[in-house]
Design a protein that fits this description.
2 copies of one chain form a homodimer. Chain A has helices spanning 5-12, 16-23, 31-44, 50-57, 73-88, 102-114, 129-136, 161-174, 190-206, 223-234, 248-260, 294-309, and strands at residues 62-67, 92-97, 119-122, 142-145, 156-159, 180-184, 216-218, 242-245, 270-275, 288-291, 318-321, 324-326. By secondary structure, chain A is α/β, with parallel strands linked by helices. Chain A has 3 domains: 5-48, 434 Repressor (Amino-terminal Domain); 60-159 and 294-322, Response regulator (Rossmann fold), CATH 3.40.50.2300; 161-291, Response regulator (Rossmann fold, 3-Layer(aba) Sandwich), CATH 3.40.50.2300. In chain A, strand 8 (242-245), helix 11 (248-260) and strand 9 (270-275) form a beta-alpha-beta unit. Strand 2 (92-97) of chain A pairs antiparallel with strand 2 of chain B. Chain A binds a DNA duplex through helix 2 and helix 4. Chains A, B: This is Catabolite control protein A.
Chain lengths: 336, 336
DNA sequence: CTGTTAGCGCTTTCAA
DNA sequence: TTGAAAGCGCTAACAG
């Protein structure tokens, strides 16, 4: 039924070993022999069985990727970065959604390891001891992608979320704002949530602006929660002159809530966020936001993983990619 | 180093076969024996090797997915549908981006087949004879996802793009519009491009509205091309009262181009499209658009594939999922 | 209910 | 430069 390396060997009048050498581009084969083998392969329509190869060689040229949700634009962008570089190094990707749920994360880590992936790329929620423990049940290299572990023991590539938020809020302060509200993510989320909230607080502190409880509202990263939070801010006796949203989507919700209430952005209220998603340049006014290099996070972490898999030495196993403030039109000085 | 089924067998004082039975939940094992085996597994930290299992059983519980671009929101949504159902049936997904480029598509189909996937889900550009030929080099079931082959021989799940476009344009006509422009995709693309263009033409025809060359402008699905096309329409001596865009993104570009030119949507010009992406409800005015059930396309095609992989009989191997017009606020009657 | 025994298709020493 | 042979870790008859 299926043609194997053995069939090719017989057809070409050589041994299996030689066919194997040809298929794997081993230079120690006489050109003439090589030609014979190629012809036999062609004639028989031979296709190497990667599973058998994997068993024999203990390498699958496959890496596992655990991702919170591939339908999320940010993660999809990371995934694309991963795949492009993987491709370049002839690796394939097994993709598993885990929705930032610890049990699911642990489970997929294990099935990925069962599949004998050569390496693992992990994006998720907090990286707990339990995760680390799961990682340690095997020797395959791991890199954390767009997250870090608290202990800082696992290689990772990420941006500095705290600093990104800090920069965004500082921009508002530089413009003259003193009444700055924040639409945050869930504070349980270490990266998008907690760190950004802290950046906000630090910026306020540094500028000597008192922190006000009622100026912080938790959202769920989504458009609707941006609307909801903004409506709440508008109901306050003293409404903020600027709003910092932890994500573009919430910022857009905020802008629309403002506009739907007859307010103008940025004339009446300024809005800033972090992400720089496609949508940031697809609304009016164009959104000022801090760009996160999602594609690069994926690409760099995959590149790092290839090095780890080849046991190459790696100088810094913790890489922080730079973010950048993209100034567009949603921020202006507060009204006098 | 690594603990194998053999080690477990020895530790538990049974044969490999018995361990295998336990691991695979074969009911023919005395509960007591089962318990002994589980304990040995626990003690040794045994983790089955899926590669070895794959070689022996000729099943990898892995399916290959070729996708144009995971960073594209529509495809990412499909991918999520696929993954969820795959998960449910205990399959894993190997994901390959192929950018709708035939050479890349053929290449990844082959590497996926080398990896001995149990099934293949294909999303891409046109499905040519060359594709079919590549599919036929193996016996693994294939299903086309959000595409169809011209010959109609391969199982597939998709929506009726022509009809979706037809419905959208009809809505405009029902509203009283007679000057309807279209921002199309590239006509080489069978689904999003050509079919939607045809739906547009057919709707016009049926309503007895003459087709006008200058009212059709090719875009590339992106926001910017929606802007560009709309600016062109506005430069026409007789400008259209309504615009049909082949994608939401182009529609949003169109709306902004209109607004940036001081026109109001829908008071001055109506805009309609197809996709119903998240963004459709994240702009002002809210976009009227035909919803494509992307997640379901993924889910249903994966479900179909599981049946094919189990050699279950399948009544209809060509499934067309229903689309639906989502009426929001970007369409109104033309000015008198 | 359990064990024995062949492979699955390939890579990889080791010799020649 | 080539071949022989021993596995890689597991499943799947088959026998008992």
């Amino acid at each position: 039924m299926t043609v194997t390396i053995y069939d090719v060997a017989r057809e070409a009048g050589v041994s299996m070993a030689t066919v194997s050498r040809v298929v794997n581009n081993n230079p120690n084969v006489k050109p003439q022999t090589r030609k014979k083998v190629y012809e036999a392969i062609e004639r028989l329509g031979y296709r190497p069985n990667a599973v058998a190869r994997g068993l024999a060689s203990k390498k699958t040229t496959t890496v596992g990727v655990v991702i919170p949700d591939i339908a999320n634009a940010n993660f999809a962008e990371v995934a694309r970065g991963i795949e492009d570089i993987a491709n370049m190094y002839h690796y394939n990707i097994i993709l598993c959604n885990a929705d930032k749920r610890k049990d699911k994360e642990i489970r997929v880590i294990n099935t990925l390891l069962e599949k004998q992936v050569d390496g693992l790329l992990f994006m998720g929620g907090a990286v707990t001891d339990e995760h680390v423990q799961a990682f340690n049940t095997s020797n395959v290299p791991i890199v954390l992608c767009a997250t870090t572990d608290e202990k800082g023991v696992i290689p990772s590539v990420d941006i500095n979320h705290e600093e990104a938020a800090f920069d965004a809020v500082n921009r508002l302060i530089a413009e003259g704002h003193r009444s700055i509200a924040m639409i945050s993510g869930t504070l349980q989320d270490p990266a998008n949530g907690f760190a950004r909230y802290h950046g906000y607080k630090r910026a306020l502190e540094q500028a000597g602006i008192p922190y006000r409880e009622e100026y912080v509202r938790n959202g769920n990263y989504k458009y609707e929660s941006g609307i909801e939070a903004t409506q709440y801010f508008l109901s306050l006796p003293e409404r903020p002159t600027a709003i910092f949203a932890a994500t573009d989507e919430m910022a857009i919700g905020s802008i629309h809530a403002l506009q739907d209430n007859g307010l103008s952005v940025p004339a009446d209220v300024s809005v800033i966020s972090v992400d720089n998603s496609r949508m940031a340049s697809m609304i009016r006014p164009l959104l000022t936001t801090v760009a996160q290099p999602m594609y690069d996070i994926g690409a760099v972490s995959m590149r790092l993983l290839t090095k780890l898999m080849k046991k190459e030495s790696v100088d810094h196993a913790k890489v922080i990619l730079p973010h950048e403030l993209i100034v567009r039109r949603s921020v202006a000085a507060p009204k006098a």
